[in-house]
Amino acid sequence: MSPRTVRPAFRCSECGWTASKWVGRCAECQAWGTVEEVGAAPATRSSTTATAPSSPARPIDQVDARAAQARSTGVGELDRVLGGGIVPGAVVLLAGEPGVGKSTLLLDVAAKAAAGAPPGHPVLYVTGEESASQVRLRAERIGALTPALLLAAETDLATLLGHVDAADPSLLVVDSVQTIADGSVDGSAGGVSQVRAVAQALIHVAKTRSIPVLLVGHVTKDGSIAGPRVLEHLVDVVCQFEGDRHSRLRMVRAVKNRYGPTDEVGCFDLHDAGITGLADPSGLFLSGDRSAVPGTCVTISLEGRRPMPTEIQALVALSPLSSPRRTTSGLDSSRVAMTLAVLQARLGTVLGGSDVYVSTVGGARAVEPAVDLAVAMAVSSAADRRELAPHIVAVGEVGLTGEVRATVGVQRRLAEAARLGFRHAVVPHHGAEDLKAVPGLEVHPVRHLRQAVEVAMLLTNPGSVGPGVP
């Protein structure tokens, strides 16, 4: 092929994947109808010559590690997710659905960072989606008005970089990366080429000036981050901001983190006066009335490494329909259906002519297998019209034979249960011998679902059963 040969180029508007010919489906993100022609690309060969480095390579033990030490953002729950704070020069991408509270959270972070910013180095907040007046009103509502927080409403990359040169900020917040456009790059703001160019420019500023940068990112209808996938590879940290519109609970998860773990979760309470970190979110997941009621059972699920108390509620009612309803909320519907089948086949629980509703309290999501035992005990309690004691927690996976299978992190779950004041825990027998004693908590290992239900019913009357039922 001649060095001057010109071939057509096609690019996916969703992920940036390129091809030499048109196809109906992108081979990278599997989206249909997103591959478009972007013009002709010369197939030329280029060679790169070696140049002298600006600084020689040094032995690794002589590299200063203090430059990579995290600094607190002032928001404890966000620090938990980031691994202790934000590292100078790090670029953090926070993605989430519209209206979930991304801008509110970052405005609160910017205000707290500005309160502790060194003199002459304020925090710069650049908004491309709202006017400065709108952001000011939100800042007044959440108590984020501070002189060290500078606000600019810009959508041009060159002007944004000019603000950075003039302010010399200690923290830069850009809301959002899809609204900023580079005048030297073809395409409208939010396009693949524009997002890539803007992200690369902001990353260059962060690395050369050692300025931490927080970026807001949009998501597509399937929940993935909008724009080219290279955006996620370029930044240092990718966080997902999740939450139900009908619930006050918001969660931040680290999908990628070059400076810390990716299995931590930060919990926030979004309310009229702003957003507040929840070091103890149990109040949102447990009902206020802890009296014994048929059809309720508490479990301790794990969100990453964080134990989260979750109350499971079940209702079994006679159905007027030929095909009874099976409705779930906050749980994996397929696992709930399997658990109902095990209850009918192994314990003889009659559910055939009844509607079964199973839900979590407070909009919590509990989809791990370890909540199976609590679901089974709640449904069994509702079907038999017999309440479980309010001081019992249940943790374990239920197999198709009715066996209670081992799960991970039981020790952490038990410690959280004891902290919340629970006195009895029903856990899988396998691995129970390795558990350390938890003060104030009595552990009851069980091998089968039938045994777990019997233990829970007996514990409804304190003193009717001894410690450690075999």
Automatic annotation (TrEMBL):
Annotated region (Disordered), positions in chain: 40-60
Record carries keyword ATP-binding: yes
Pfam families xrefs: AAA_25, Lon_C, Zn_ribbon_LapB
Matches recorded under SUPFAM superfamilies: P-loop containing nucleoside triphosphate hydrolases, Ribosomal protein S5 domain 2-like
GO MF annotations, alphabetized: ATP binding; ATP-dependent DNA damage sensor activity; ATP-dependent peptidase activity; damaged DNA binding; serine-type endopeptidase activity; zinc ion binding
Zinc recorded as keyword: yes
Ranges of biased composition (kind: Low complexity): 40-59
Superkingdom of origin: Bacteria
Amino acids binding ATP: 96-103
GO cellular component, as recorded: cytosol
Lon-protease-like: annotated span: 355-470
Entry-linked CDD domains: RadA_SMS_N
Residue ranges occupied by any RecA family profile domain in the UniProt entry: 67-219
Keyword annotations of the record: ATP-binding, DNA damage, DNA repair, DNA-binding, Hydrolase, Metal-binding, Nucleotide-binding, Stress response, Zinc, Zinc-finger
Segments carrying motif RadA KNRFG motif: 256-260
SMART domains named among the record's database cross-references: AAA
GO biological process assignments: proteolysis; recombinational repair
HAMAP family on file: RadA_bact
Family: Belongs to the RecA family. RadA subfamily.
Domain statement: The middle region has homology to RecA with ATPase motifs including the RadA KNRFG motif, while the C-terminus is homologous to Lon protease.
Functional description taken from the UniProt entry: Plays a role in repairing double-strand DNA breaks, probably involving stabilizing or processing branched DNA or blocked replication forks. DNA-dependent ATPase involved in processing of recombination intermediates, plays a role in repairing DNA breaks. Stimulates the branch migration of RecA-mediated strand transfer reactions, allowing the 3' invading strand to extend heteroduplex DNA faster. Binds ssDNA in the presence of ADP but not other nucleotides, has ATPase activity that is stimulated by ssDNA and various branched DNA structures, but inhibited by SSB. Does not have RecA's homology-searching function.
Protein name: DNA repair protein RadA
Organism: Georgenia muralis
Source lineage: Bacteria, Bacillati, Actinomycetota, Actinomycetes, Micrococcales
